């Protein structure tokens, strides 16, 4: 699918979201340190957990609202919310106020706005892109996000650390341009078959009641629920890159190691491992998705889980720095293999009138995966590192079995 044939909505969003993602990652990596220094590590951790719980709930609400009121309207509401939150952010970080609590409120507002944005944004892709091209388009947006994850912190280290308020003001300016572009250039993509709601005044309680009623459709879809379960098992594995891996590398790698005439410590080995992961994901996701599209999706997911298991076992039995790096390469390709196909599957099985709800519910894979992931660090204290890596490898193989059964069942339903 050539860029020239893209719907105008996707073109505007690709450029606009590139900046939004970069701006978020310019700030986010440095906020944990800021909150730890100003509020204390324990308090900051608790407040950030509460913030993420709120964000998870609003993400579910965002899917319902996108199906009820339209994709474009929710995108405009979400970007407006981000702008308002960044304005509060600028005031909170100014020398006149400098309030960590207000900064946290502003950050929560940005996160909530982002969680409202995503279900509508993903559903919009499913609305305007033919099924055969969806995985490819989703992979392009995923690649853009990963580039932002790499570029954002680098820019943040230069601009946000030195000029926090000025950087936030620049973000507000560019997000306002995006808001205008979305309002003037894009169109509504909510399918006409979606349920139309009667006009009239509705209370918050009524909206919440309708939301829970809508999610009954998801709860009755056993195929989709098992897909989420498998996703949680693999997501918690991916999360170990930021949790168990750095601890493991620091303890296993000697104080210094020689690599190509360079002397590296554990932290530097971990940094190189992260760079390998980011490089592979950012540069191969689109090509890999396009190449794998010729094969059955069930096979792709099973192979991805198998690659995860092999990578984990190599990590757990590492006796050299090179083995760490080889394991990270395998691990990264496991992540890249299913890029785009996950959202494509959700778009395919979701009823047209509930697409955004399905996309928001699929986000539970990441939400619950982030909650479960720290348990592996605790487990490693009790049984040791290698047994913990074996447990994680077994979980990914269980996920492979679930994916096999899910896609086999889908094929049977289509006959």
Automatic annotation (TrEMBL):
It is found in: Cell membrane. GO terms for cellular component: plasma membrane. Keywords: Cell membrane, Membrane, Transmembrane, Transmembrane helix, Transport. Residues 1-411 form the Major facilitator superfamily (MFS) profile domain. PROSITE patterns: MFS (PS50850), SUGAR_TRANSPORT_1 (PS00216). The keyword Nuclease does not apply. The chain crosses the membrane at residues 12-36, 42-62, 74-93, 99-117, 137-159, 165-183, 223-249, 269-287, 299-319, 325-346, 367-383, 389-407. It is a multi-pass membrane protein. One of its GO terms (molecular function) is transmembrane transporter activity. It comes from the Bacteria. It holds the Pfam family MFS_1. This is MFS transporter. It comes from Brochothrix campestris FSL F6-1037.
């Amino acid at each position: 699918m050539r860029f020239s044939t893209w719907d105008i909505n996707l073109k505007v969003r690709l450029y606009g979201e590139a900046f939004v993602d970069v701006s978020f990652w310019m700030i986010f990596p440095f906020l944990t340190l800021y909150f730890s220094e100003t509020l204390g590590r324990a308090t900051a951790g608790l407040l950030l957990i509460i913030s993420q719980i709120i964000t998870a709930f609003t993400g579910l609400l965002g899917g319902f609202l996108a199906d009820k009121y339209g994709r474009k309207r929710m995108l405009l509401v979400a970007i407006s919310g981000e702008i308002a939150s960044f304005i509060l952010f600028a005031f909170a970080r100014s020398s006149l106020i400098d309030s960590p609590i207000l900064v946290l409120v502003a950050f929560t507002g940005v996160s909530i706005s982002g969680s409202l944005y995503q279900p509508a944004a993903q559903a919009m892709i499913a609305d305007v892109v033919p099924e055969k091209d969806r995985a490819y388009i989703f992979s392009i947006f995923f690649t853009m996000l990963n580039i932002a994850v790499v570029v954002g912190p680098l820019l943040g280290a230069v601009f946000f650390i030195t000029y926090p308020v000025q950087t936030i003001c620049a973000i507000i300016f560019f997000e306002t341009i995006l808001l205008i572009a979305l309002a003037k250039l894009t169109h509504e993509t909510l399918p006409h078959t979606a349920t139309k709601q009667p006009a009239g005044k509705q209370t918050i309680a009524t909206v919440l009641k309708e939301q829970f009623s809508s999610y009954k459709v998801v709860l009755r879809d056993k195929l989709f629920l098992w897909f989420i379960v498998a996703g949680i098992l693999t997501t918690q594995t991916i999360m170990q890159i930021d949790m168990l891996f750095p601890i493991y590398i620091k303890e296993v790698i000697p104080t210094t190691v020689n690599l190509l005439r360079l002397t590296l410590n554990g932290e530097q080995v971990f940094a190189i491992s992260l760079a390998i992961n980011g490089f592979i994901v950012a540069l191969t996701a689109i090509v890999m998705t396009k190449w794998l599209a010729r094969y059955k999706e069930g096979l792709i997911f099973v192979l991805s889980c198998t690659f995860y298991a092999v990578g984990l076992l190599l990590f757990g039995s590492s006796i050299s720095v090179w083995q760490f790096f080889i394991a990270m390469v395998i691990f990264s390709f496991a992540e890249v293999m299913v890029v785009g196909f996950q959202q494509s599957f959700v778009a395919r099985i979701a009823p047209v009138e509930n697409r955004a709800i399905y996309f928001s519910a699929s986000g539970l894979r990441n939400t619950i995966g982030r909650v479960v992931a720290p348990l592996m660090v605790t487990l490693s204290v009790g049984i040791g590192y290698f047994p913990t890596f074996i447990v994680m490898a077994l979980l990914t193989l269980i996920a492979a079995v679930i994916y096999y059964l899910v896609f086999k069942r889908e094929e049977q339903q289509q006959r």
